[in-house]
Design a protein that fits this description.
The protein is α/β, with parallel strands linked by helices and 386 residues long. The protein is built from 13 helices and 11 strands. The strands form 4 sheets. It has a 4-stranded parallel sheet. A 3-stranded parallel sheet has the order 3-5-7, sandwiched between helices. The two termini are 34 Å apart.
Length: 386
C-alpha cells in the first residue's frame, strides 16, 4: 500500500507541560481565580510529583505545571471541568473570563465558550454570544456548525482487526468479532502483519468469513499480508489432498491481495488436488471512499461521540497499519481525563519509534485537554478552521 504524507503543519497545537496529580498533602481548595493570574507570585506554585497513573487519576484533584502564559491555569481548569462532565461550572467560568480578561487576551476563552455552546446544542446562546464577541473584539464571530445527520458516522469509519501469532481454537473470540463486524457490513482492514500461521479449523473459518463478505459486497482490505500469504502458498502442494480449508483461505486471500494470473494458477492446482471444478476469479468489492482529509488523504480512523473510560484497544491495529496514522476527532464531543491518558499510552510508543500520529479536528475543549496531558508532544494536533 502506498501512503501519502502530510506536509502542511497548519494550526499545530503548541506544546505544553503534561498534567500531574495533586499530592495528598496539598490544600483541597482549587477554586479558580476570578481575575487574571498575574497577581500570583511564581514561588507560591507547589512542585508536582513526577509520576502519573492515568488509570487511577481523580480529575477533580489534578494539578498542572503552567507555561509562561498566565491564562493557561484558567484554561486548564475549564477543560478539566468539561472533561469531567461539569459543563455548568465550565460555562460559568468561561463567561466570567471573557469579561474579566481584556479583549486582547480573552480570545482563547471566547473560542472555548463557543465550542462549549456548540457541544451543548445551544444555538440561541451561541448567536447571542456572537453579538457580544463582535462588540468586545471588533471582529466577526464564528458561525454555528449544523451537524449533518450522524456527522461522525457519515464519514466511513474503517475498523482494523489485527490477527496475531499462530491462530488455533483459542482464537474463537477474535473470529467471532470478525464475523460480527462483517455481518454488520463494516468495511474492515484485516492486519496480517503479525500473523504467523493458523490451523485448518481457523483457516476454514477465515475463508468462510471472507467469502461471505465478498458475496455480500462488504469491503475487506488486507494489510501487511505478503509474508503470511507467502508462507501459506508454500505450505500447500498440488496433488496432496490435505489442508482443504487452508487451500480455500489461500484462494480468498489471493482474490484480495494477489494477481489474477496467480489466483487462476492456484485455483487449477486446487481443482486437480481435490477433483472439483476450479473457482473463478471475482474482483473484490471496492472500499467506500472515506471523507477526504488534508492533502487528499482518505485513510483516517474516525472517532465519535462522548469518549469516556475508553482504553482504545482497537487503536493498536490502526496505529500499526499506517506509516502516518490519522485519527479524526471531528465527531468527538467530549474526551474525559482517563481516556486522554489512555490515548497517551497508545500513541507514546509510536512517537518513540519515530512515527508521526496526526490527530485531526478536535474541538478546542478536547484539544486543550490533549495539551494538558501532553498529547501535543506526541502527535500533531490539527485544529479545525474557525
Amino acid at each position: 500500500m502506498v501512503f501519502s504524507f502530510f506536509r502542511k503543519q497548519a494550526q499545530k497545537m503548541p506544546e505544553r507541560p503534561a498534567a500531574r496529580p495533586r499530592s495528598p498533602d496539598w490544600p483541597e481548595s482549587a477554586a479558580p481565580a476570578s481575575q487574571p493570574p498575574e497577581s500570583l507570585p511564581p514561588e507560591e506554585t507547589p512542585a508536582a510529583p513526577s509520576d502519573f497513573d492515568f488509570g487511577a487519576a481523580d480529575v477533580s484533584g489534578i494539578a498542572v505545571e503552567h507555561g509562561e502564559d498566565p491564562r493557561q491555569a484558567d484554561i486548564e481548569q475549564v477543560v478539566v471541568l468539561f472533561a469531567n462532565g461539569q459543563d455548568a461550572m465550565a460555562r460559568s467560568l468561561l463567561e466570567d473570563y471573557v469579561r474579566s480578561y481584556p479583549p486582547a487576551q480573552s480570545r482563547p476563552f471566547w473560542e472555548l465558550l463557543f465550542d462549549l455552546l456548540q457541544v451543548q446544542g445551544d444555538r440561541e446562546g451561541f448567536e447571542r454570544l456572537g453579538v457580544d464577541y463582535a462588540h468586545a473584539c471588533e471582529t466577526s464571530p464564528p458561525t454555528w456548525r449544523d451537524a449533518a445527520p450522524a456527522a461522525a458516522g457519515s464519514a466511513p469509519r474503517r475498523r482494523v482487526l489485527a490477527l496475531p501469532g499462530v491462530l488455533t481454537a483459542d482464537a474463537a473470540g477474535l473470529l467471532d468479532e470478525l464475523d460480527a463486524l462483517l455481518g454488520a457490513g463494516s468495511s474492515l482492514d484485516l492486519d496480517c502483519g503479525r500473523l504467523a500461521g493458523c490451523d485448518d479449523a481457523v483457516a476454514g473459518r477465515l475463508a468462510d468469513a471472507l467469502l461471505k463478505a465478498r458475496r455480500a459486497g462488504v469491503a475487506v482490505r488486507l494489510l501487511q499480508a505478503d509474508a503470511f500469504l507467502g508462507r501459506l502458498n508454500e505450505r500447500l502442494v498440488a496433488g496432496q489432498a490435505e489442508h482443504e480449508p487452508a487451500w480455500r483461505l489461500l484462494l480468498e486471500l489471493l482474490q484480495r491481495h494477489g494477481t489474477q494470473a496467480l489466483f487462476e494458477e492456484r485455483a487449477v492446482d486446487f481443482a486437480v488436488t481435490f477433483e472439483v471444478s476450479p473457482p473463478s476469479w471475482e474482483a473484490p468489492p471496492a472500499a467506500a471512499p472515506a471523507e477526504p482529509g488534508p492533502a487528499g488523504r482518505n485513510d483516517a480512523y474516525y472517532l465519535a461521540g462522548e469518549l469516556k473510560n475508553c482504553r482504545f484497544d482497537e487503536l493498536a491495529g490502526v496505529l500499526n497499519a499506517s506509516a502516518e496514522p490519522v485519527l479524526d476527532f471531528s465527531g468527538v464531543r467530549r474526551l474525559d481525563f482517563y481516556s486522554a491518558g489512555q490515548l497517551v499510552n497508545r500513541i507514546a510508543p509510536c512517537q518513540a519509534a519515530g512515527k508521526t500520529v496526526v490527530i485531526r479536528h478536535p474541538n478546542r475543549l478536547v484539544a486543550e485537554l490533549m495539551a494538558v496531558v501532553g498529547l501535543d508532544r506526541l502527535a500533531r494536533i490539527i485544529l479545525p478552521k474557525s
